[in-house]
Specification:
The chain contains four helices and nine strands.
């Protein structure tokens, strides 16, 4: 798989999984000639602003409320300027397939709403039978999957999206070893750029080589909740 760099803003929440508005579909040409001379340049400028905003923040851990608000605003502007991709579109799927590197995480809302009005909310917060709860998160330099929260500040964090086999894997390198959480996914019937994820693997591998396999926890949770689905991932 081709390695890619991903600007991640973890600004949405499922209590059980990852939800990454991933900036990966910004290079489609505009739909009309009049906008052709300005849209590519403005997108380039916005991406540059986003890179500057997320840099030197320890994957979002040290970002001030002002910086968090700036990131949320820029992400929203980029999303408004680009078409919504679809996981069933071969061209969009090809862009998404590969290894992505975490650059930033953020809470879904920042501080006082009167001071920082911008917030990210899922357009469709309910997935019906999947029973995936959505709520606001206060993630700063962390990622979570099925209740497992990992500090990602100053860490190498990869998300591997295998479109051929419909599998997503989250790989985090830590001081004591490595944490890998993965599962199968399917396209949401409600949102074309949303993948419903059913995590079934959680491995903690120590530097000594010993691996603790905790995938059974997902099976227990699935039996309790009545659904194997425990998170979703959205891309832009």
């Amino acid at each position: 798989m081709m390695k890619k760099t991903l600007l991640l803003a973890t600004v949405a929440a499922t209590c059980q999984g990852f939800q990454f508005p991933a900036i990966q579909n910004l290079f489609k040409p505009p739909s009309n000639t009049a906008a052709a001379s300005t849209t590519p340049q403005s997108l380039t400028e916005k991406k540059s602003q986003l890179l500057d905003a997320v840099s030197f923040t320890a994957n979002g851990k040290t970002a001030t409320p002002e910086r968090q608000a700036q990131v949320l605003q820029i992400v929203g502007e980029i999303e408004a300027m680009t078409p919504t991709p679809s996981l069933s579109d071969p061209a969009d799927a090809k862009l998404l397939d590969g290894v992505w590197f975490l650059q930033y995480t953020s809470p879904s809302s920042v501080g006082d709403k009167d001071v920082f009005p911008d917030a990210w909310k899922p357009a469709v917060p309910d997935e019906g039978p999947s029973k995936i709860e959505t709520r606001q998160v206060q993630s700063k330099g962390t990622v979570s999957a099925a209740g497992l929260t990992v500090d990602t500040s100053n860490r190498v964090v990869k998300q591997i999206i295998d479109m051929t086999n419909s599998v997503v894997t989250n790989d985090v390198e830590l001081d004591f070893g490595r944490v890998v959480v993965s599962g199968s996914f399917r396209q949401s019937p409600n949102v074309p750029n949303r993948a419903i994820v059913a995590f079934d693997r959680a491995d903690i591998t120590l530097k000594s080589g010993f691996t603790l396999k905790l995938g059974f926890v997902f099976a227990i949770l699935a039996a309790f909740r009545g659904s194997k689905d425990n998170g979703w991932l959205e891309t832009t």
